[in-house]
Amino acid sequence: MGIRFDAVTVAYDGNVVLDALDLTVATGEVMALLGPSGSGKTTALRAVAGFVRPASGRVFLGDRDVTDLPPHRRGIGMVVQSYALFPHLRVEDNVAFGLKARKVPKAELRARVAEALEMTGMAAYARRHPRELSGGRQQRVAIARALAIRPDVLLLDEPLSALDARLRSGMLAELARLHRELPEVSILYVTHDQIEALTLADRIAVMDKAFSAASTAASTAAMTSAPGEAARCRSSAAGLVPTSSSARWVSRYRPRTHTSASGSGGRVGTTGTVALPGVTRQRWRMAATAAWL
Ligand SMILES: Nc1ncnc2c1ncn2[C@@H]1O[C@H](COP(=O)(O)OP(=O)(O)OP(=O)(O)O)[C@@H](O)[C@H]1O
Predict the structure, then answer these.
(1) What is the domain extent for residue 41?
(2) Pocket lining: 43 vs ligand 1, CB cutoff 6 Å
(3) What own/partner pairs with CB < 8 Å and gap ≥ 24 does 162-170 have?
(4) If you measure from the C-alpha of residue 73 to the centroid of ligand 1, how many angstroms do you get, rounded to a whole number?
(5) pLDDT per position as a tens digit, 137-149
(6) What is the ipTM for the molecules in this complex?
(7) Where is the signal peptide (predicted)?
């Protein structure tokens, strides 16, 4: 199920963080939100999850306007940097948590927990407590918990940033595999890391505090329309330095979605988001349910 921000403005105490954000993530697409600290990436995710209410604009999941829905009715799975596992619950109970809250019948609950643990390679750790697991395994449990509710949309907020480099590259490969197994789940992936974005994403939206000088903390996303512009976009608009490997990737970008420009002036448009090489899509056999932990 796709995600659409329609002129979404979010302000904290009058401080504009998202300024009329227009952004569309297609069904089954991975969109990375890349950008410097404070540019509003997490806020964009929280607006989709329902943890912040836009001052104006609407958030759509598929055709559904979810702007006024509480988080648990949006059908979203979310994974954050800090795992956010319940320390007193075993792995299987952490994964089951959202299903219990949704009153999923016991037999189905057990099947779904087993399925999610299998998908994340954590079946052998079902009876452990989080403290008995490494950071990488804890994050797998958090991912399993998000998947157990069979979300239409997965929001990943720097899910790998607490892991060391070796674990991070392993998990990156795991996330890419999961995405192939769940081709109809749309993923919004917040990261500071260009390599993560380039590895996982079909498209990258670069968030930038382009308006900070003019209007306190307003943000916008600067995006490129032509493959060759990607490096420039990341370096000049977002203040990120393109690496030689990313530059090579850049040359392989193929523009995929282009809609009309949403104008200048802080508004974020889908115009010219950068499309990355896609992955083979397989059908996701899981039925979608509307649930949140
Ligand atoms: N609950 C809040 N109350 C007030 N200000 C907030 C709140 N949450 C975020 N902000 C501010 O909004 C701006 C954007 O924050 P946000 O966390 O969305 O950025 P980010 O791009 O995700 O940053 P980071 O990469 O550091 O996580 C920052 O200036 C931040 O201080």
Answers:
(1) 1-68+185-284
(2) yes
(3) 162/81, 162/82, 162/83, 162/135, 163/135, 163/136, 163/139, 164/135, 167/134, 167/135, 167/136, 168/196, 170/136
(4) 24
(5) 898 999 999 888 8
(6) 0.97
(7) none
